[in-house]
Write a structure and sequence with these properties.
By secondary structure, the protein is α/β, with parallel strands linked by helices. The protein folds into 2 domains: 155 residues, P-loop containing nucleotide triphosphate hydrolases (Rossmann fold, 3-Layer(aba) Sandwich); 61 residues. It is built from 9 helices and 10 strands. Strands 6-7-8-3-9-10 form a 6-stranded mixed beta sheet, sandwiched between helices. Strands 2-1-4-5 form a 4-stranded antiparallel beta sheet, with helices on one face. Helix 5 runs parallel beside helix 6. Bound molecules: adenosine-5'-triphosphate and magnesium ion. Adenosine-5'-triphosphate binds next to strand 2 and helix 1.
Length: 235
């Protein structure tokens, strides 16, 4: 469904990604892992049309979408949750939910949002920018199901959140994945990401150093080599 072929990309003259190839087949979850500064966010920016690659191609559902804008990508079924939060801070929570929703499904979206994240239930009239960091993250996550996407691209949605909320976020991502939506996931919680993922891609200094099934990566020495840690059940 989403294929990145031989992507080289960066900022100005600085090359960050070198010849990166990966694919996220239909209805699967790919965990994109790597140390800080490896180029994960940059790769998601390329995939979602925020930055144009210097070379290489992006194929979405068989169509070459290289050079398309983020808006074109979202029209083609991509929902992107960037690092930080993709919400409208000056609008209320309710209005944010309505904007995230597919047409005609606004009430259902609000209902599902407060069921998934009860913390939002009492805050519908509150200005989104005044929510706590965790609440804002939950609100932004609603978009991953409210806009009925085909592929979701998420960058560290769990960053800075309490473990109990992280659990809830992973449950939500797992639910989304079971509805046939593909997910390209960047996560600091490696073990949780691999538990959810079908396949994994390990990026180091802008290059792919491993690509394969999530299970293969769990048993691979390569992970320890690049992260200096073993994948443990608790993280
Ligand atoms: N807007 C930018 N302009 C110039 N350089 C940038 C920009 N954004 C990122 N970089 C550089 O590109 C490299 C890769 O950054 P990127 O944000 O993609 O890494 P990352 O893997 O997402 O790291 P982290 O795990 O810390 O989020 C870094 O060296 C970073 O300094
Ligand atoms: Mg990043």
């Amino acid at each position: 469904m989403l294929e990145l072929e031989h992507i080289t990309a960066g900022y100005g003259d600085t090359v960050v990604l070198r010849d990166v190839t990966l694919s996220v087949p239909d209805s699967t979850v790919l965990a994109l892992l790597g140390p800080n500064g490896a180029g994960k966010t940059t790769l998601l920016r390329v995939a979602s049309g925020v930055i144009k690659p210097m070379s290489g191609r992006i194929i979405l559902n068989g169509e070459d979408v290289t050079g398309k804008q983020p808006y074109d990508m979202s029209r083609r079924g991509m929902c992107s949750l960037p690092e930080g939060r993709g919400i409208f801070p000056s609008l209320t929570v309710r209005d944010n939910l309505i904007l995230q929703s597919s047409k005609g499904k606004e009430s259902a979206t609000i209902e599902k949002a407060v069921t998934s994240f009860p913390a939002l239930a009492t805050r519908l009239k509150q200005i989104a920018g005044s929510l706590s960091g965790g609440e804002q993250q939950m609100l932004s996550l609603v978009r991953t199901f409210a806009s009925e996407p085909k592929i979701v691209v998420v960058d560290e949605v769990s960053l800075g959140l309490a473990p109990i909320i992280v659990d809830r976020i992973f449950e939500t991502l797992a639910e989304i994945a079971t509805t046939g939506v593909s997910v390209l996931l960047v996560e600091q919680y490696v073990t949780r990401a691999l538990a959810l993922a079908d396949s994994a891609c390990l990026l180091n200094r802008g290059e792919v150093v491993f690509t394969g099934s999530a299970d293969e990566l769990k048993g691979d020495e390569i992970f320890k080599r690049y992260f200096g840690i073993e994948i443990s059940p608790i993280q």
